[in-house]
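To whoever picks this up:

The parser on our side crashed when reading a file containing two proteins. I've narrowed it down to the boundary between the first structure block and the second sequence. Both blocks are reproduced below exactly, byte for byte. First block:
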Amino acid sequence: MKIGLIADIHGNLPALKVILDKFEREECDSIYCLGDTIAIGPSSKECIDLLLTLPNINFIMGNHEEYFVKGVSSITSESMSEGEKQHQIWIAKSLNNEIRERLSKFPYLIEENIKGTNVAFMHYALNNREDTKTFKPIEKNVTKESMNTLFKEIASDLIFFGHEHNASNIIGEKHYINIGSSGCTKDDITHCTIVKFKDKSYDIKVHSMKYDKEDVLRELYKREVPEKESISKYFFNV
């Protein structure tokens, strides 16, 4: 059993196409998309439309899908700048109600037993209290102890997630793997994770591929994406 994993593609269509081509060549049996397919990059609709055509894909709800599904005004915090609000409004207008309906059915967590290994797929650690945000605050100090605490409610032995764009691989009480962002890259290299499961064991490989980053930057300005200057600087190192 071989699966392909992506997270935080963030409207980066050139990177997504390179990754899907890799999954096809590697003959992955299924794909898990761990949230945040949309926003930041210029091609949210093209990315989600492409992924929704795939017969072997499993989706997870990310915070940006949640912004779109629930509506920006209902979940925007005081810490979100006016520019960020305008960006989310622009993203919502670039999509449509049919996509909103499809995304609203995305789960926050998938837990499966794959060839004898209990595996969890999620965007990030979740709050259980209704009076708090859906996702726990990002843990910047990535250690065995912090990951054990962050994911203490998850029973699975192997946990894949994203949200924090920097990848990490930590073995504590469980195996915690942040696959990182496939779409927000400082250079012209994207990456994906492919996992091969055998009887009660697994092999994880990270694949790096070149993509046309300049095309993403051109589209940011061509489409007049709100916050394009900040996005170019912070997420693409321009």
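<<boundary where parser fails>>
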Amino acid sequence: MLELQYELESKAAKWTQFSFTWRGVQYTWNRLPQGWKHSPTICHGLIQAALEKGEAPEHLQYIDDIIVWGNTAMEVFEKGEKIIQVLLKAGFAIKKTCSRDPVSKSKVA
């Protein structure tokens, strides 16, 4: 799984990308504000569009969680690396500490 944050390139950062008006004050960001009720939907759409454009291998995505699978650990690793490269090329920042290798085991309740 990967933890992602959509960050605009430095050239584009001077332009507002996300904004809304509340009680007569306009709030603007060049990063998607977390905690805003539409942030998960926007985040999911941005990641999905980047993965489709970059021809990412078969995967499951829910907001910023991406799961890949395969018959061997090496196959899973290669698919994960391909997805990471697609997202980095699209301008996403990825925390390496939040990605899990194919050998990690998750507990299911």
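After patching the parser it read the second block fine. Strands lie at 4-6, 18-22, 25-29, 60-62, 65-67, 92-94. Residues 1-6, 8-12 have pLDDT under 50 and may be disordered.
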